[in-house]
Design goal:
This protein is globular. The protein starts with a helix and ends in an 11-residue tail after the last helix. The protein has helices spanning 3-25, 32-43, 52-65, 69-88, 105-108, 116-137, 141-157, 162-177, 181-207, 216-228, 241-248, 251-256, 260-263, 265-274, 276-289, 291-307, 345-362, 369-385, 396-406, 421-439. The protein is mostly helical.
């Protein structure tokens, strides 16, 4: 069979599979966070508690594609990335493994949830795939534009993404502009620092989104934890002894050691809206004067998340959402009724649940974050020893995975497996890269050295 005919058949079959998957899982699985972003996509962006860029994009996808537009976009990113990686390594039979990426259980588990974690993972996956493709072809200004558009969408869609971006962006710059590693990291650091300083506020002004004070959730956790551990606090604390005793009896906090804001939603809302500056000042004072307690608390949360997430390794719907139609029960602010009904979501739900639970029974370690951290470190060691072999700094990719996970140390908000999703996707990509590069050494990305 002629090569062009084979490529046409492959692309056609993969596209049909993509369409079928979109149909089965449309309009996507949603949590309360997803519904709030859908609400803002339809009625206008209110605040930046959730990434405004995601609601903004969704608002343009709804008219032509319906509510499922965001799901179709996410799946397009994933399937395009997988197919492109297959084409990059065409000629190697193992390249077909890339086509299987969307169906690996540790990818498939959250693949259909409208989450910022999923959006980040898939946008950077495609950005890296396009950068590798460009490094070979060395042509196409549109590709360069797409690479950086996807990268910046990813950095905007997840507030802690800069922790991983510090090594993803240098890799992209090297693929495109052939910079050396040191120069690319310096340039990337400057770009990310400027991003932190200016971009969020500029975009909030553009979208008319007020500051949602999302960091309040973390500050409340820290202050309450330090108070409960007997730490020193200012006399004018925003949290009375009576309130601290109330937190001590909260089941969520006792179970997870995190989530104090949820224990008293009225208190958190009041602090966010009326006393955010005072809350920030008290947090700084409390952390500074009780740093050992703070560090021990944050480290224990992070380690617990790595070792034993409290959430299921898959997701298909929010139990407090009625489907169809979609709306959030018992929350006056978001009780709008969804008019879009699920298509075949119930079949997708059964498929996800049976596939992931059966996999977990045999390979439970796959759904433990520590496994992916260890694997990322091994990949980093491997690529570091191969620096002189490949012209691209592949070691930056597993390092981005590690740095992204470490970015959660001061911000762990729940023991949730989804928080590690980007690192899982990137570690999977690196595993396949190692496999194909090792089997055919000197064939890919080795003719020039940077």
């Amino acid at each position: 069979m002629k090569r062009n005919n084979l490529l046409y058949i492959e692309l056609t079959l993969y596209t049909l599979l993509f369409i079928f998957i979109c149909y089965i899982f449309s309009p996507g699985f949603m949590t309360k966070d997803s519904i709030v972003q859908l609400y803002q996509a339809e009625l206008g962006i209110i605040d930046d508690w959730h990434p405004p860029v995601m609601s903004w994009l969704w608002s343009y996808l709804i008219p032509p594609l319906g509510v499922g537009g965001m799901l179709y976009f996410q799946l397009f990113l994933l399937f395009s990335s997988s197919y492109l990686m297959h084409r990059i390594f065409e000629g190697n039979k193992l390249s077909y493994l890339f086509l299987c990426v969307p169906f690996l259980p540790w990818i498939f588990n959250f693949e259909f949830v409208i989450w910022k974690d999923v959006a980040l993972a898939y946008t950077w996956f495609l950005s890296v795939a396009l950068a590798l493709f460009y490094s070979i072809k060395k042509e196409g200004k549109l590709i360069v534009f797409l690479i950086f558009s996807l990268f910046f969408y990813g950095i905007l869609v997840r507030s802690n993404s800069p922790a991983g971006a510090i090594f993803v962006l240098p890799f992209l710059l090297i693929c495109i502009f052939k910079l050396n590693a040191k120069k690319s990291i310096i340039i990337s650091s400057i770009i990310i620092a400027l991003y932190f300083s200016y971009i969020p506020k500029l975009l909030n002004d553009f979208w008319g989104a007020k500051n949602g004070h999302g960091f309040s959730y973390t500050m409340i956790d820290d202050i309450v934890a330090i108070r409960m551990a007997g730490g020193q606090v200012p006399d004018s604390s925003l949290f009375s002894h009576k309130e601290i005793n109330k937190y001590k009896k909260c089941n969520i906090l006792n179970l997870n050691n995190v989530g104090a804001g949820i224990c008293d939603l009225k208190k958190m809302k009041s602090l966010m809206e009326n006393d955010y500056i005072k809350l920030t000042e008290e947090w700084k004072h409390t952390v500074k004067n009780n740093f050992k307690i703070y560090f021990k608390y944050r480290a224990s949360l992070f380690i617990k998340s790595l070792r034993d997430p409290k959430t299921a390794p898959y997701y298909y719907y929010e139990k407090s959402l009625y489907q169809p139609p979609y709306y959030i029960a018992d929350e006056e602010s978001f009780n709008h009724v969804r008019v879009t009904k699920r298509i075949n979501g119930e079949y997708g739900q059964l498929l996800v649940e049976s596939y992931i639970t059966s996999t977990e029974k045999v390979f439970s370690f796959i759904f433990k974050p520590f496994f992916w951290v260890i694997l990322s470190f091994l990949q980093l060691i491997y690529f570091t020893t191969k620096k002189r072999v490949y012209r691209l700094p592949f070691w930056m990719l597993p390092l981005s995975s590690i740095s992204y996970i470490c970015g959660y140390i001061p911000f762990t908000q729940a023991h949730d497996f989804r928080y590690f999703y980007y690192s899982i996707v990137m570690t999977t990509l690196c595993s396949l890269l190692i496999l194909l590069l090792t089997i055919k050494p000197g064939v890919y990305f080795s003719e020039e050295r940077i």
